[in-house]
């Protein structure tokens, strides 16, 4: 069993519900600090976030569809970094990926990476909506475009969230060169441990306390 402390250090404690209020964000920060997690992840309009202390602050970009123009995603990323984001989790153009236009996918990622400057970019590939071959190519293009992480899911797509199979495939593709974030539908300690065994180096969780309490 992975220790509670080790798992906490991998968690992006996430609040992306559209109806989230400033009070909800403040409660998220307080809970994140109490749990000892690595980061919080909030919507761009919630930035800047006060009193985060040592927490890493992540946000999303082109979320949740990924169907935005690249220049809009780039502007969103630049604004988020200016507002205090340390990390930007962007959604790929899923339609381009499904059409086999991975040059467009790579160009889209590259635009966000450039706009984010020194901030870490995590690329959400929506793995449950892709074939194995598409997952591999999306990961390759994310690496070529300069991203720091590949990430399974938004948690909003009807095809589902993270799977251990997708995480294993993503880790096999990027090796130790990029991080792999498993996100979407991870609600138990058992599920979190399965993702870590598959190769995840970061976990996106909204129910972090439940997961960590399962490791206590």
Automatic annotation (TrEMBL):
Catalytically driven reaction(s): 2-deoxy-D-ribose 5-phosphate = D-glyceraldehyde 3-phosphate + acetaldehyde
Keyword Cytoplasm attached: yes
InterPro entries, per database record: Aldolase_TIM, DeoC, DeoC/FbaB/LacD_aldolase, DeoC_typeI
Keyword rRNA-binding: no
Keywords: Cytoplasm, Lyase, Schiff base
Cellular compartments annotated: Cytoplasm
EC code(s) of this entry: 4.1.2.4
Signal peptide positions on this chain: none
Main function: Catalyzes a reversible aldol reaction between acetaldehyde and D-glyceraldehyde 3-phosphate to generate 2-deoxy-D-ribose 5-phosphate.
Family statement: Belongs to the DeoC/FbaB aldolase family. DeoC type 1 subfamily.
Protein name: Deoxyribose-phosphate aldolase
Organism of provenance: Brevibacterium daeguense
